[in-house]
Amino acid sequence: MRIVWACCFVCSSFFLSAQEKIADDNFNDSTIRILIVPYSRIEFHTEFSIDYIAEINTTISDSIYTFYRNALLHVLLNSSFKNIKFILPSENDEKIVRMAVKYSYSNKPQRHYMANLSAVDKNKFAALLGKYQAQMVLFINWYKIEKTYQNNLSGSGKARKPFAEHYIDFDVVDKDKTILFCEGKFYFKATKTNAETIESKNLRIKEVKNGYQILPLYIYKRLGAK
Asked: Are 66 and 56 in contact (CB under 8 A)?
C-alpha cells in the first residue's frame, strides 16, 4: 500500500522533553477537560508499506491504523497531569462531529491540515462539550509516517537504514469554536535511538508509544501558559 504525501508542512520549532517535570500549581483548581476527536483511517498516511509495518509488529496489515490510533489515545487518556483530563466521545458522537466538520489546509497561523468548524452550529457544538463537561476539543486531523535514513551507531554513512518519523497535525478548540493553538507536522521524536529501534525502523508500537508522551505534555504547557 503506497500513499503519496501531497504537501509539505512547516515543522514545529517547539520541542519539549517528555521527561520534563511540571509543577501542578500552574493551573487553577478546576480540571480542564478536553474531548478528543482523533484522525480517521483516511487521514492515516505512511511512506512505509503497511504490510512491512504489520510484519514489524507481528500483526495483520488491516490492524495497523488501529494499532497506532489506539496507542496514541491510550497515552492521552492515561496522562497523569493533575489539572488536565482527556476524554473520548462515544463512537456515535465522534461520527456526528466528523460529518459536521470540514477538513482543509490552512496557512494560518501555519501550514497544517485543520478542522474547519465554520459550518458547525455554535450552540450544538457547545452542547456536545457540555454533555462531556469539556471545555475544549482536541482535533487530531492527520497522521503521517515519513521515511528518513538513520546512520548506524558507528557513525558510518555507508550503513544508513530506513527510519520512521511520526507526525500529526492538530487543533485545540474551545466551546466558541475558536482555535486556541494548533500545530502542523508535530513531531513525535524517538525517545531512544539504539540498535533495536534502528532495526525495527522506529515502527514498532512499543517504541513509538513512548514518543507519544510528548503530546499531552505539550498541551499541558500551552494551556498552563495562558
From this structure: no
Helix/strand/coil for 46: strand
Looking at the 3D structure of the chain, how many domains does it have?
Answer: 1
Q: Which helix (H) or strand (E) holds 123?
A: helix 122-131
d(CA 36, CA 89): 7
Of 183, 173, 44, the C-alpha closest to 113 is: 183
Model confidence pLDDT, tens digit, residues 110-160: 678 899 999 899 999 999 999 999 999 999 999 999 999 887 665 555 568
Give the C-alpha separation, 14 to 94, whole Å: 29
pTM of the predicted structure, to 2 decimals? 0.82
Cell digits of residue 21: 517535570
Residue 39 lies in a domain: yes
Domain assignment present for residue 81? The answer is: yes
Is residue 154 helix, strand or coil? coil
Which residue from 96, 89, 81 is spatially nearest to 23, judged by alpha carbons?
81
What is the tens place of the pLDDT at every residue in 23-80?
A: 344 445 589 999 999 999 999 999 999 999 999 999 999 999 999 999 999 999 999 8
Query: E-assigned strands of the chain?
Result: 32-37, 44-46, 84-87, 102-106, 112-116, 136-150, 161-174, 179-188
